[in-house]
Amino acid sequence: MALESQLGNHYERLHSYVNQESLWIRQIQLSKGYAWSQNAVQQAIKEGARRDHEMNTIRSTVNSVKLMIQEQNSAEDILNLLNGGDYSTALKRAETWEGERQFKLYLLFIHELTIGTSKDADFRKEGCKAVLEAIEKTPEDYSILDWTNFYPELAIYKYHEELLKMDLDGMAIWRRGTYTLQDLIERKDVNNDILKNLASQTPDARFKSNAYFKISLALMDQDKKEESLEVINDCLKAASEITEKRFKLIPYIEISKILMEQGKKRSP
To answer: How far is CA 26 from CA 32, 48, 73, in A?
Structure first.
């Protein structure tokens, strides 16, 4: 029809056809995307402009914007694709989103595949692997993206546990946030070994030292003194990496208190 219109025939048929919302619905369901509908409306915009048909051009332009908004706000449709096993198409749709909105969508994907609707699906591991690969392509610059501003650490931890069961590395998610583990350390339903590993990969020496210190206290409360002392050594090492002296002094003082309480009458 676009070709016919370009040849001077049946322009009105093209314009009327591509601007039908009922047509969009069928195209979106069949193609699992908005590209077909958007391309068709763009053809109508070009033909309307070429013919100086202002009202038709305006109508097609408005419909193009409407389609764009629908696509940008179609998280539920995208999640339905994911839960239906078509995670590849869901990820392609997610590529049209940007920044924080895109990352939130990726986290929703991980949620559905680990502890959500598709937690028992046979495609969950391959789906998680594909989503983690997509996350690896997002920036690690916290000034651009930091999931801790809008997502709880506990949720990421729960996903991490499930990813480990599938032999997948969830650090791709953790690295994109200034996590501190403060919401997790005092909980009794978390794995101390996982916490220690997460602490070891915290890039900020201050956060790392503080995390180790809190983990050590938690272990002491659990009467795991030997393990607590081992973590104290990790805390000391992290503290030594702190460059600013005013921040370095605090963990040394706190560590000294722990050692003295345990009968270790010596300071760091």
So the answer is: 10, 24, 18
